Amino acid sequence: MARTRTPANIVGKAIQKRRYELNLTQEEFAARCQLHGLDISRGTLSQIEAQVRCVKDAELFLLAAALKVSTDSLFPKRKAGSRRR
Q1: Is it the case that residue 82 has pLDDT exceeding 70?
Q2: How many C-beta atoms lie closer than 10 Å to residue 63's C-beta?
């Protein structure tokens, strides 16, 4: 996959932030994901956090479960006055 300037996902930074809050390494978090049914490597997790890999819908639910948060909490907050299209 070619790397572009456009992020491939919008949840990567929130995943990384929550992982830091839980004091987990990428390796530890990848292992936790596997316990939740998501077969993911440390390298793939690194790509997600760097926003160079897309996150599938099913993966998002499992990542959120492994982080003990809702999927909504992984999305950036909307700015006041902004509209959805």
Answers
A1: no
A2: 27
Give all domains of the chain, ordered by start, each with its CATH number: 12-70 (1.10.260.40)
Q: Return the number of other C-beta atoms located less than 10 Å from residue 19's C-beta.
A: 20
What Å distances lie between residue 40 and 4, 5, 11, 27, 84, CA to CA? 22, 24, 16, 10, 32
The model's pLDDT over 38-70, given as tens digits with 9 standing for 90+, comes to: 999 999 999 999 999 999 999 999 999 999 999
pTM of the full structure:
0.85
Rounded to 10°, the helix 57-67/26-35 angle is: 110
Residue 13: how many CA atoms within 13 Å on its side-chain side? 6
Give the relative orientation of helices 57-67 and 12-21 as an angle to the nearest 10 degrees: 20
